[in-house]
Specification:
The complex is a heterodimer of chains A (about 200) and B (about 575). Chain A has 7 helices and 9 strands. Chain A has about 200 residues and is α/β, with parallel strands linked by helices. Chain A has one domain: Rossmann fold (3-Layer(aba) Sandwich). Chain A is globular and about 45 Å long. Chain A starts with a strand and ends with a helix. The relative contact order of chain A is 0.20. Chain B has 4 domains: about 160 residues, GAF domain (Beta-Lactamase); about 120 residues, GAF domain (Beta-Lactamase, 2-Layer Sandwich); about 120 residues, Reverse transcriptase/Diguanylate cyclase domain (Alpha-Beta Plaits); about 100 residues, Orthogonal Bundle (Arc Repressor Mutant, subunit A). In chain B, strand 6 and strand 7 form a beta hairpin. By secondary structure, chain B is α+β, with helices and mostly antiparallel strands. In chain B, the strands form 3 sheets. Chain B has a 5-stranded antiparallel beta sheet with strand order 2-1-5-4-3, sandwiched between helices. Chain B has a 5-stranded antiparallel beta sheet with strand order 7-6-10-9-8. A 5-stranded mixed beta sheet of chain B has the order 12-13-11-14-15, sandwiched between helices. The chains are: A alpha/beta (about 200), B alpha+beta (about 575). At the A-B interface, helix 5, helix 6 and helix 7 of A face helix 1, helix 2, helix 3 and helix 4 of B.
Chain lengths: ~200, ~575
C-alpha cells in the first residue's frame, strides 16, 4: 500500500511504515487513542494487532470490532495480547524476541490475506521491575528498521502520568514522529537504529 | 507510579542515550536538533499541564535526557524552595542570598560539592517567579546552557499559566460556591416567603388552630398536632391521627413544658418535634410535628417557628376574647343585681349570646369553713350548675356567690353537690322569679332574706327558697313594720331585754322550740345543747314572760312573734 492512511486520531494521516510514539494522560485518554486508531483500522480492513497492559483493557477491546459498525467479518482481524505473552514472554524483555514477534505477526497477516497491518503497544509494562526493560529505547529505535520494510503503521503508547521527562526526551530523539496532544511532531533528526546502536556500543 | 518514581526506578536512566562521538560534527548537530525537538515536546507537555508540581517534575526529570546537568531545585520569589532531582534536599545555605543578589537575571551560584551551578530565572508575563538552579560536574557547553535556559523559560511560563489557571479555577470555584450559596439563600428565602405567605393567609382568614395545623402539614408534609397545656388535642392535620389521643401524666407533661420553656426552640420528644407556644405566661400551647423518620430539615423548622408565631397570635386572640367575654359577663351580672334598665340589659346579654328574656331568679350561695374561699366557691357553683344542665351568669357578691339563672331545680340537691365538690358547708338562698331584668334586684333581696332567715330561724341548713317562706314572706312584704315591731315587743320584750342584758339566747331557744313543735330532743339537737339545759332555759322563759307555753293561744302568738322577730332581724341586716 502506498499513500497516506488515516490514523483514526485527530484526522492525522500516516505514511505506511510510520512508527509513532503517542503520549497520553490517564486511562480515558489511552482508550480514546486505542479506539480511534484500531477502529479506523478495522473499518479499513487492516489487520490489527495490539498489546495492552491489562486483561481488563483487553476484555474491553474485544467488543470493538462489533462496535465500530464497519464491514466485516472481523473474526481474527483484531489480535489482542498481554505483555506476558509478548514484551515479557519468558519473564524478560529482549529486543530481538519482540521484533521477531512483530515480524511473524505481520507475515502471518499477509498469509491470511491482509494487505496492511496496524500495530499498537501499550508501553506501561516497561515500568515493571523485569529484566531487559533498560533496552526499551534501543528497541524503539530498532523497531523503526522493521516497520520501514512492511505495509504497517505502529503506535507506541506512553502514559505521561507514569513515564518521566527523560523517557519522553529520549523517545522523541529516537522516533521520527511523536503524537502529543493531538499534534504529530515530526523529528527528521531522530537517531536512527544503526546510529543509536553504534553509539550505544561505544 | 509517578514520573519521578519511574526516573528513580532506573528505567529512564538506563534508557539514556549514550554520548555521541565528538569527532562527528554532523551527528552532533543532528543530536542538538533532536534535543530541540524533544524540548519542543516537553514545552508542549508543560503548556498542557495545569499542575505546577507536575510541570516542575517534568522539567526536573527531562534534564538527564538533555545533557549531563541536573536540576537542584526551584527557589521561588516568595521564599519557597521546591527540591529538584533529590526530593529531600533542602535549599543550600547561602543560596537565597546569592539569588537575591542576582535579581531577575541569571548567573553563577556556588553550591557545595558542585563543580558548576547556575541560576536561571523563571520568568512570566507578570514578572519573576523565581529561579531554576541547575548544576553539573563540569561547566556545560554553550548549547547545553542554552537548553537549560530554554527549559527554565518554558518552566516559568508553564508555572505562571498553571498558577493563573489555578487562580481562575479557584475564582470559578469561589464564584460557583457563591452562586450556589446565593441560590440556596434565594431558595431558602423563597421557601420562607412561601411559609410566611401561607401562614399569614391562615392568620388573617380566621381559620383558627385547625387552619394553622393544616397549613403547617401542607408546608412540611408531616402530620401536625396542636395541644393545650394539659396535652389535650386542639387540632390535628395529616394522616395517622391517634384515636384515642394519648395523654401524658401530669408530671411528665410539666417536665416537658419546663424543658420547652428553657430551650425556647423546637426540641425532639421521641417521634415528635415540639415547640412551646406561649404568648403570655398564663396561655400555653404546644405545636408538634410528627416526624418519626427524623427527616425535618431547616425549612421545616422555619415553617414550624412561623407556625408557632401565628398560633401564638391565635391563642392570644382566643384568650383575649375569653377575657373580654368574662369581663362583659361580670359587668352585666353586676348591673343586673344592682339594677339596670331592661333594654340595655337585654342588648348586652344578646351580645354575649345569652338569653335573658326568660324569667330569671337570683340564687345566693354562702360558703362556710373551707367553702369560704370565693374563687373556689364560684368555680364549684359554676361546675355544679353546668352539671345540672342549667345556664346562668355568675359573680361574687358581698362575700357570697350570686347566680342569675333561668332554671329551676332541686336547690337542696344543688347545695349538697356544691358541698361535695368543695368539701365544706354552705347555705343557699333562692329569690323569687323576675319576669324582666329590672326585677332582678328584688329577686336578689329575696334570696338574701331567705339566706338570712334560713341561718337564723329555720331548722337545719337546707336551701331556702323565698317563694316557699309563707308567713315570713308575708311579713317581709309589709311596708310599715311599726305594728309588727310592737307585736314582737309585746310578746318577746322581756326575753329580748334579758338576752341583751345577759348575752343569752332565750329568744332563739324559744324560736327553735316552737319551730320543732315542742319536741325537746329535736330542739336540743338543733341548738347543740343538752336536754336539761333546754328545760332550764324554757323554765327561765316561763318565769320571765309569765306565760304558759302549752296554751294554744299563747303558743300561736309566741310562734308568730318569733317569726316576726326573725323577719325583722333579716330585714334589719339587709338594711
Amino acid at each position: 500500500m502506498t499513500g497516506t492512511v488515516q490514523s483514526g486520531i485527530e484526522e492525522i494521516g500516516l505514511q505506511p511504515g510510520s512508527h509513532v510514539c503517542a503520549f497520553y494522560r490517564g486511562a480515558s485518554d489511552r482508550d480514546r487513542l486505542l479506539t480511534g486508531y484500531l477502529g479506523a483500522g478495522l473499518s479499513a480492513g487492516d489487520k490489527c494487532i495490539c498489546v495492552v497492559d491489562s486483561a481488563y483493557t483487553a476484555k474491553r477491546l474485544e467488543s470493538l470490532p462489533a462496535d465500530c459498525g464497519a464491514p466485516g467479518p472481523f473474526d481474527g482481524q483484531l489480535d489482542i495480547h498481554l505483555p506476558e505473552s509478548t514484551y515479557l514472554a519468558g519473564g524478560e524483555f529482549t529486543t530481538s524476541d519482540m521484533l521477531t514477534f512483530w515480524t511473524e505477526s505481520m507475515v502471518k497477516a499477509e498469509i491470511e490475506g491482509y494487505t496492511f497491518c496496524r500495530l499498537v503497544g501499550e508501553m506501561t509494562w516497561a515500568l515493571r521491575d523485569a529484566p531487559g526493560v533498560e533496552h526499551l529505547v534501543g528497541y524503539e529505535s530498532e523497531l523503526n528498521r522493521v516497520t520501514s520494510s512492511y505495509p504497517v503503521v505502529v503506535l507506541c503508547l506512553y502514559d505521561l502520568d507514569l513515564f518521566s521527562g527523560e523517557v519522553v526526551v529520549n523517545i522523541v530523539k529516537t522516533h521520527p514522529q511523536v503524537l502529543i496532544q493531538g499534534i504529530l511532531v515530526e523529528n527528521p533528526y531522530y537517531v536512527g537504529p544503526d546510529e543509536f546502536l553504534r553509539s550505544a556500543h561505544i | 507510579m509517578t514520573a519521578q518514581h519511574v526516573t528513580r526506578s532506573g528505567v529512564a536512566a538506563m534508557a539514556t542515550l549514550p554520548t555521541r562521538p565528538v569527532e562527528a560534527p554532523d551527528a552532533n548537530l543532528r543530536e542538538r536538533l533532536g534535543e530541540f525537538r524533544a524540548l519542543l515536546v516537553i514545552s508542549l507537555l508543560m503548556t498542557e499541564s495545569v499542575d505546577e508540581d507536575q510541570i516542575l517534575e517534568l522539567a526536573t526529570s527531562s534534564a538527564p535526557g538533555l545533557g549531563a546537568w541536573r536540576v537542584e531545585g526551584y527557589a521561588f520569589s516568595d521564599g519557597r524552595w521546591r527540591p529538584g532531582v533529590d526530593p529531600a534536599a533542602p535549599m543550600a545555605a547561602g543560596l537565597a542570598a546569592q539569588l537575591a543578589s542576582l535579581g531577575s537575571g541569571a548567573g553563577r551560584v556556588e553550591l557545595p560539592g558542585r563543580g558548576w551551578a547556575w541560576a536561571f530565572p523563571l520568568r512570566s508575563v507578570s514578572g519573576l517567579l523565581g529561579h531554576l538552579v541547575a548544576s553539573c560536574e563540569r561547566e556545560p557547553s554553550a548549547e547545553g546552557r542554552f537548553l537549560i535556559q530554554v527549559i527554565a523559560q518554558q518552566t516559568g511560563v508553564a508555572v505562571s499559566n498553571a498558577r493563573l489557571h489555578a487562580r481562575e479555577r479557584a475564582t470559578g470555584a469561589e464564584l460557583a460556591a457563591t452562586n450556589a450559596a446565593l441560590a440556596e439563600t434565594v431558595t431558602t428565602l423563597q421557601r420562607s416567603m412561601d411559609i410566611h405567605e401561607r401562614l399569614t393567609r391562615v392568620a388573617v382568614s380566621g381559620e383558627g388552630q385547625p387552619g394553622i395545623a393544616k397549613a403547617l402539614h401542607e408546608l412540611t408534609s408531616m402530620p401536625v398536632a396542636i395541644e393545650d397545656r394539659y396535652g389535650n388535642l386542639s387540632a390535628w392535620a395529616g394522616p395517622g391521627r391517634p384515636d384515642p389521643y394519648p395523654k401524658e401524666s401530669f408530671a411528665k407533661r410539666e417536665h416537658m413544658l419546663r424543658r420547652l420553656m428553657r430551650d425556647s426552640k423546637p426540641i425532639r420528644d421521641g417521634e415528635r418535634l415540639i415547640l412551646l407556644v406561649s404568648p403570655r405566661p398564663d396561655v400555653i400551647g404546644v405545636l408538634a410535628l410528627i416526624d418519626p423518620g427524623r427527616r425535618a430539615d431547616n425549612a421545616d423548622l422555619v415553617a414550624m417557628e412561623h407556625g408557632a408565631t401565628v398560633l401564638s397570635m391565635e391563642l392570644a386572640r382566643l384568650r383575649g376574647i375569653a377575657d373580654t367575654e368574662l369581663r362583659l359577663r361580670r359587668d352585666l351580672i353586676h348591673d343586673l343585681l344592682a339594677g339596670t334598665d331592661d333594654e340595655s340589659a337585654l342588648a348586652r346579654a344578646e351580645a354575649l349570646d345569652y338569653d335573658l328574656r326568660r324569667p330569671h331568679r337570683v340564687v345566693l350561695v354562702e360558703g362556710k369553713g373551707r367553702a369560704r374561699a370565693h374563687d373556689a366557691l364560684l368555680s364549684a357553683a359554676r361546675r355544679v350548675i353546668r352539671q345540672a344542665r342549667l345556664t346562668g351568669l355568675f359573680e361574687t357578691w358581698s362575700g357570697n356567690v350570686a347566680i342569675v339563672t333561668a332554671g329551676q331545680t332541686d336547690w337542696e340537691k344543688l347545695r349538697r353537690a356544691i358541698m361535695s365538690d368543695l368539701g365544706g358547708q354552705c347555705h343557699i338562698g333562692v329569690g323569687g322569679p323576675a319576669a324582666r331584668p329590672s326585677e332582678l334586684p328584688r329577686s336578689l333581696r329575696e334570696a338574701g332574706l331567705a339566706l338570712r332567715l334560713q341561718k337564723t330561724l329555720l331548722p337545719g341548713s337546707s336551701a331556702c327558697e323565698y317563694p316557699k317562706l309563707g308567713i315570713f314572706r308575708m311579713l317581709a312584704a309589709i311596708p310599715d313594720l311599726t305594728d309588727v315591731d310592737k307585736f314582737v315587743r309585746e310578746w318577746l320584750g322581756s326575753l329580748l331585754d334579758y338576752d341583751a342584758r345577759r348575752k343569752a339566747e332565750l329568744v332563739h331557744t324559744l324560736t327553735q322550740y316552737l319551730e320543732h313543735g315542742g319536741n325537746y330532743d329535736a330542739t336540743a339537737a338543733e341548738l347543740s345543747v343538752h336536754k336539761s339545759t333546754l328545760k332550764y332555759r324554757l323554765q327561765r322563759i316561763r318565769e320571765l314572760t309569765g306565760l304558759e307555753l302549752n296554751d294554744p293561744d299563747v303558743h300561736f302568738n309566741l310562734q308568730l312573734a318569733t317569726r316576726a322577730w326573725g323577719t325583722l332581724q333579716a330585714l334589719q341586716d339587709e338594711r
